[in-house]
Design brief:
homodimer, 258 residues, Cobalt-precorrin-4 Transmethylase, domain 1, Methyltransferase, Cobalt-precorrin-4 Transmethylase, Domain 2, five-stranded parallel β-sheet, five-stranded mixed β-sheet, 10 strands
Chain lengths: 258, 258
């Protein structure tokens, strides 16, 4: 048996009662923290917080699955991951590999930035288009597919959740906004300017979480505190959404008149 | 203080440790179950399961907010809701009303069908377009906006999460598929036919949850067990997604060749 247990967003208090029980009952607990991570507790300290030994796996060990599948063949194995467990492709692939080998699998769902960020800002989840990820630009490689997807959402009036790279370190909202403006310079399709309304969600799920909305030119130098950061580009706002952005995220009141 | 505590998907085991603590520490616990509900426990039995008296509110009491806000002015009030708390517009409106009155608010996030359903099917969440809701048709009123939104997602190659009405009772996947075919008859834009690949998620988060994919003509008479049901219309499938649908949801193997 292989059980994927989501840890949610912040620390071990975000674990569900079901997830806690699965961890307690497991023969072996593995942990994976390169696709996503908790902000309130270091992977190395998780074992103590959960009262269980946790074997933290390398990226390769999760991707090839050998060790996990070998153990899950005869033992009750739990793999703990931040957020909701099946958001990462790697975990789906691992689950398919397990089922192919006759190993039963289970999922213990948990909260995800995909619904937490819209909720914190008061934007309606069903008005979001496709989620995009913003990678760190590499030397000689500046991918702009995120820009293209954002443009499609904007043309449809939909909001966009923009997830920021966490490798080799978490990207800040400030860095992300700079990258978006650089994309604009390359593509020039008028998605981003200093007057674009944009929102930052920082440390979703944490007691010191933050939701702030404003014009990109003002936000780009804002101090949002420590990571993880997420951006949301609002599309066409319903009046109730504009009001929520003003009241809950400090957006300029003039957006109510638009 | 007004704290919105998400209960997750199935029963009280899906509550997070943080959520449980907030309920224990609250002066008053209100519950709201018309926007969404748990499938593993009746609202009336929740109080016993949680060891707290829970005052279940009517739709009107949540929407006008009077009682909740009056109590939250001086007391530590928790409002428990199924899923992730801010998915419903009503809760965002209530939160805005509270903040306007100087009442601090907090959100305890939890799992949502929005990420659970893609995960159960092995479909990538970032390849979903806008989520749509399918209401029960009323006499003389057969809204087809869901069809239009689905068409946009299909044209973009994106998957669509189709949430089914829960009022006055939970719509079954079978009923939903019939409604989609009726929409097709009205609109005739070639989204749905008996050969359309479609997926059903039933009882997400429950021990007896089910994920099944197949052709609409076969699925429409399928037995998916008791509600809640959710539909997913897959868009363009990555090979790994097609493989997941076959291995995890019993889709016909021929979809691997497409």
């Amino acid at each position: 048996m292989l059980t994927f247990v989501g840890l949610g967003l912040y620390n071990t208090e975000d674990l569900t009662i079901r997830g806690k029980r699965e961890i307690e009952e497991a023969d072996i607990v593995f942990g994976e923290f390169y696709t996503s991570r908790l902000i309130g507790v270091n992977p190395e300290d998780l074992g103590e917080a959960l009262g269980r030994e946790i074997k933290i796996l390398s990226r390769e060990e999760v991707e090839n699955g050998k060790l996990i599948l070998k153990e899950a063949k005869s033992k009750n194995v739990v793999l703990i991951v931040a957020g909701d467990p099946m958001i990462a492709t790697t975990h789906v692939a691992l689950r398919v590999m397990a089922e192919e080998r006759g190993i039963k699998t289970k999922i213990v769902h948990n909260s995800s930035i995909v619904t937490a960020a819209p909720g914190m800002l008061g934007l309606q989840q069903y008005k979001f288009g496709r989620t995009v990820s913003l990678p760190f630009p590499q030397e000689n490689y500046f991918p702009t597919s995120a820009y293209d997807f954002i443009k499609i959402n904007q043309n449809l009036g939909l909001h966009t959740l923009i997830l920021l790279d966490i490798n080799p370190r978490p990207m800040t909202a400030n860095e992300a906004m700079k990258i978006l403006l650089e994309m604009e310079e390359k593509k020039r399709e008028k998605i981003f300017s200093k007057n674009t309304l944009i929102a930052v969600v920082a440390r979703a799920g944490a007691p010191n979480s933050l939701a702030r909305a404003g014009y990109l030119g003002d936000m780009i130098n804002g101090d949002f505190g420590s990571p993880l950061h997420t951006l949301v580009l609002p599309g066409k706002l319903h009046f109730a959404e504009a009001e929520a952005l003003v009241k809950l995220a400090g957006a300029p009141e003039e957006i109510l008149d638009k």
